[in-house]
Design brief:
single chain, eight-stranded antiparallel beta sheet, 14 helices
Length: about 675
């Protein structure tokens, strides 16, 4: 596809229009004569898109436009200026795009331009190759779970195939095989959605090059590419325009890659990916291009949209509302895909996810290599993001250089977040045993429930003596949240519950707090502890998201609701968050365990179907109430419908024994 500029058969008028528009977009700009201080990655697609347009239509204006940007790029003595010139992303991007341009239009360029382009590609390819060899075991050369690795090796591979440099393509191929073998099979990506859309397309590019040039089909190797669209889908906010911003996310708009959606749709027959590609390259295209903080951005992907779009794949709107990705410990649940639907995304895992954490430890021990560079992964295990009514209500901080648990919806112990935080790479050189994880996961599409417990005690300074810090999150069929935080320490500690919002929460006369974002609202009610000290303060987060542009600064202002306990060796927070309406949340008195009931009656919540009751006992697994007796981590009830249980061996409800088994059971009862 890429080397030959040959797409799948069939008409593609919208994709051809995109290429033509992108080919002309820079015609009013003057190419730089000296290297700007910022990144020059955009110079690559500025040349390749008009080159492809010329291949499609034969317009001499497109050939001239591609030549203009080729000449600008090749006369720069180095690719990259502020950070690792010739050895990082600028070089990888330009090698890929200018090598394609050389293949597509090289014969139509003047002899002198063609020779200069070939010389420059050989020079820059050699520089990048030699750096990859010399730095093996350090930084991107063997950072298998990192976008720099994928982009630089894909660029080297493109140049190698176009120029006939087998040593480049072989090294890149060996790396690609390792990456595919080591990426999580569930398709999740610890760097977050923004770096997924920035980096993963280059894995697809490399796979296409390999198949076309060598006849080697690795598309099903390892399983990551097979499943990664599902991960991206479930990190999409209702209404599809915005993304959940776990990890380093410059903003909430930089999440779509229409080209990659089309390629995954074509390769694996995923109709939802085809639908998302149409949406991202159509209705959402210009808003993302204008509001995204990531450059070059979505517009330069026009060449991929054209070459990867397969018109034979049927487009189908997504419908799946629940998913769990075990490697990243990521639970995503929503009430639907409409603009006003409610979504929660809740995560807990070791740095980089379970696979990367365990494998990188082996590399360290056996090879002396540092292969896990997860600077884009945050100290956010146990945190969650809540979106409802078209707005972000419980939020993440996005991008940060000095990453802190206090920037997330988490808990502090004596005012402290995770051990060894407040730096860019919070997981570097920390003990292997310092891992978070999810347990007792229930993801049920039929009943609409989602449940998980995040174990995060290991993430805090051992000097604090935290024996347990478990957060249980329940998402109800109506989209309400129940949070139960249980903490234990060797001695008395002050426990602080944090909730981050875009605007200050508003106190209510009944003690609740109102989250407001535009017209969207949610009520926060904390049933325990009764004597908490509640304050609201401003948290400022500033970051430089790219070392190639040192002067760039992103800032985000969070409004942090803090609920702090008196010092105690154990802590307990029982909290509900009810999006929209005025549905009353009430604590249900239990002899053992904890209970919360949501009573109908708010706006849009008429009828018995809106009544929901949650019983929790994630540690003792004993729930005793006047009408219910269970040996279970959770019992989840609606007024109509069968009960659901988590890790249950016995359930007696209203005098009837509904479950009595020896092995813990999770799911629907009856």
């Amino acid at each position: 596809m890429l080397l030959s500029a040959t797409p799948p058969p069939g008409p593609r008028p919208a994709q051809e229009t995109r290429v033509r528009e992108e080919a002309a977009r820079h015609r009013g700009l003057t190419p730089p004569r000296t290297h700007p201080s910022a990144s020059i990655t955009w110079l690559g697609p500025a040349a390749s898109n008009p080159a492809l347009a010329y291949r499609i239509g034969g317009d001499p204006a497109d050939l001239a436009e591609s030549r203009r940007w080729i000449e600008a790029a090749v006369r720069l003595p180095h690719w990259g200026k502020a950070h690792m010139p010739d050895h990082d992303l600028d070089a990888g991007w330009l090698l890929h795009h200018l090598s394609l341009a050389h293949r597509w239009i090289g014969e139509d360029l003047p002899d002198g331009v063609r020779a200069l382009l070939r010389y420059k590609l050989l020079l820059q390819g050699r520089r990048l190759y030699e750096f990859a060899v010399a730095s093996e075991g350090r930084w991107w050369s063997s950072s298998y779970w990192q976008n720099h690795n994928w982009i630089c090796y894909a660029g080297l591979a493109t140049a190698g195939y176009v120029l006939g440099k087998e040593e480049w393509t072989e090294r890149a191929k060996d790396n690609l095989g390792t990456v595919l073998d080591l990426m999580p099979e569930d398709g999740s990506h610890a760097e977050g959605v923004v770096y997924w859309r920035y980096g993963v397309p280059f894995l697809a590019i490399h796979l296409d090059l390999l198949k076309e040039a060598e006849g080697i089909d690795w598309w099903d190797r390892g399983g990551f590419l097979t499943n990664t669209f599902r991960y991206r889908l479930h990190q999409t906010a209702p209404g599809f325009a915005f993304n959940v911003d776990h990890g380093d996310c410059h903003d909430r708009r930089s999440g779509h890659s229409a080209g990659l959606y089309y390629r995954l749709a074509a390769q694996y027959g995923i109709p939802e990916a085809q639908w998302m590609g149409d949406l991202a390259s159509g209705e959402l295209l210009w808003a993302e291009a204008a509001e995204s903080g990531v450059r070059p951005g979505i517009l330069p992907e026009a060449y991929l949209e054209y070459l990867w779009y397969d018109p034979s794949v049927t487009a189908v709107r997504p419908t799946e509302t629940r998913a769990f990705f075990p490697d990243l410990g990521l639970l995503a649940a929503r009430t639907g895909w409409e603009d006003d639907a409610t979504l929660v995304s809740f995560k807990a895992s070791p740095g980089g996810g379970h696979t990367a954490w365990g494998t990188s430890e082996k590399h360290r021990a056996e090879l002396g290599w540092e292969t896990l560079n997860q600077g884009h992964h945050h100290p956010d295990s146990g945190s969650f993001v809540l979106v409802s009514q078209g707005a972000f209500l419980a939020v993440d901080e996005g991008y940060s250089n000095r990453k802190r648990a206090a920037h997330h919806n988490l808990l502090l112990v004596d005012g402290q977040g995770y051990a060894d935080e407040d730096r860019y790479h919070v997981y570097k050189d920390i003990p292997y045993e310092r891992q978070a994880r999810q347990r007792d996961v229930l993801v049920d599409a039929e009943g609409g429930w989602a449940h998980s417990t995040a174990e995060i005690a290991a993430m805090y300074d051992p000097a604090l003596g935290v024996r347990r810090l478990d957060r249980t999150l329940v998402f109800t069929p109506a989209g309400r949240l129940v949070l139960l935080d249980l903490a234990e320490a060797d001695e008395d500690r002050a426990w602080t519950f944090l909730l981050q919002t875009d605007r200050p929460t508003e106190p209510r006369p009944d003690g609740a707090r109102l989250i407001r974002s535009g017209a969207a609202t949610a009520l926060v009610r904390q049933f325990a502890p009764l004597d908490a000290s509640v304050t609201c303060e401003v948290t400022e987060v500033e970051a430089n998201p790219t070392s190639s542009t040192p002067e760039l600064r992103l800032t985000r202002t969070l409004h942090t609701l803090r609920s702090a306990t008196a010092r105690s060796s154990d802590g307990l927070f029982l909290t509900t968050i009810t999006p929209g309406g005025t549905c009353a949340a009430e604590e249900v008195a239990c002899v053992e365990g904890h209970g919360v009931a949501f009573r109908p009656g708010g706006a849009g919540e008429a009828g018995a179907e809106a009544a929901e009751t949650v019983f929790l006992s994630p540690v003792a697994r004993r729930i005793r109430h006047a009408t219910l007796s269970a040996d279970a981590a959770a019992v989840l009830l609606t007024a109509a419908g069968a009960p659901y249980v988590v890790a249950a061996t016995r359930l007696e409800l209203a005098g009837r024994v509904l479950l009595d088994v020896t092995e813990p059971y999770t799911g629907k009862v009856g």
